[in-house]
Amino acid sequence: MTSVLLGYGVEGLCQTLIAHGADRVILAQDPELRHYRTEPYAEVLTSLIAKHKPAIFLFGATTLGRDLAPQVAGRVGTGLTADCTGLDIDAETGLLRQTRPAFGGNIMATILCPDHRPQMATVRPRVMRRLPPDASRLGEIVEEKPILSSKSTGKQVLDVLVEAAQAVNLEEANIIVSGGRGLGRPENFSIIRELADVLGGCVGASRAAVDAGWIHPSHQVGQTGKTVAPRLYIACGISGAIQHLAGMSGSEIVVAINKDPEAPIFQVATYGIVGDLFQVLPRLTARLRKALGKDGETRQKARRVERESDPACGVL
Ligand code: FAD
After folding, report:
1. Is residue 241 within 6 Å of ligand 1 at its C-beta?
2. How many angstroms separate the CA atoms of 298 and 32, rounded?
3. What's the first-to-final CA gap in the chain, in angstroms?
4. CA 236 / ligand 1 centre spacing (Å)
5. What tens digit of pLDDT does each residue of 154-209 get?
6. Model's pTM, two decimal places?
7. What single DSSP character describes residue 33?
8. How far apart are alpha carbons 209 and 203 in whole angstroms?
């Protein structure tokens, strides 16, 4: 697997990529690549693809990846499957099977690109499990000198402003406590936050809760929200619609709290609690707070400070 690293003064990241699984890193550095801009990045990637001729080229379905991928696909004359939730190799043809929701999310479509190269897709973060870094891994670093035309460098970045209300980075969270329509009203998200605080986790939500305006859309988990893969996912008052499961079924342990024993969420739950969340959650939070004791409080405080300074777990 080859990673492409563009930027300036980023050579130190090559070993990080190798530790995470890259066998080879193509490094292209230039002052013009210090800040992301569509044109120079697309130009450099297009020339690297022409030179190295990969069979498959993947981008993260992040804000930047979603901007850059169609530009590159258009320039190299191939197709692009955007926002994949699954990838596989077809055993017979060796083609990349690119799966993503289609027709308003009502079906999952698997798309093949038999005639053009590279096969190109953007893939949602956390769709694939990240390997634990192995600092002893060895890999090859190939340096390429980017050739940039004046056309692509015509725009300058004058300043970078960090948005005040940063998005919640649920994708990176190890523990997520999510609330759904079962919470009944926005104020009740406080009991979700309390449990998340005790565990040092983040707050997630179903689309029903987001659509009702109870919580910011950056908390939404699911097909049209974020794909998450925490070690622990606690779903409270969430029925377990297929579109919600699409975003959290990669979780290691799922705990579901729902008063309906037939709720589909129980089919994916490692542990299920059939009961009223307004009774279960305060007791669970109190028990965990006690069990974690002083250590827990210290850890909680540290995490709260961490979260306040880092948007990863910000709650509104
Ligand atoms: P409901 O389905 O109404 O479930 C509420 C649950 O709370 C019920 O199971 C009920 O038994 C339980 N409950 C009620 N009161 C209590 C109580 N006091 N204690 C315990 N349990 C209680 N949804 C997403 O979540 N994410 C997405 O990204 C997403 N994308 C979508 C994309 C498309 C194209 C479409 C069509 C839909 C999408 N949806 C998504 C919506 C999805 O189909 C469901 O409507 C939604 O997930 C339901 O949210 P919910 O489980 O909170 O609400």
Report:
1. yes
2. 44
3. 39
4. 10
5. 788 888 877 655 556 898 899 999 999 999 999 999 999 999 999 999 999 999 99
6. 0.70
7. G
8. 12
Pairing of strands 86-89, 96-102: antiparallel
The token duo for 48 is 């690297």
From CA 207, how far away is CA 222, in angstroms rounded?
A: 8
277 CB under 6 A from ligand 1?
yes
Measured in Å, residue 114 CA sits from the centre of ligand 1 at 38
Nearest in space to 98 (alpha carbons), one of 78, 117, 112: 112
Residue 105 is encoded by which pair of tokens?
A: 């999310």
Q: Under 8 Å CB-to-CB from 271, ≥6 apart: which residues?
A: 253, 254, 255, 256
* pLDDT exceeds cutoff 90 at 127: no
Closest residue (by CA) to atom 2 of ligand 1? 239
| Closest protein CA for atom 13 of ligand 1 | 182
Mean pLDDT of 82-103: 91
Q: Is the pLDDT of residue 7 over 60?
A: yes
Does the CB atom of residue 278 touch ligand 1 within 6 A?
Answer: yes
Residue 294 — pLDDT band, cuts 50, 70, 90? low
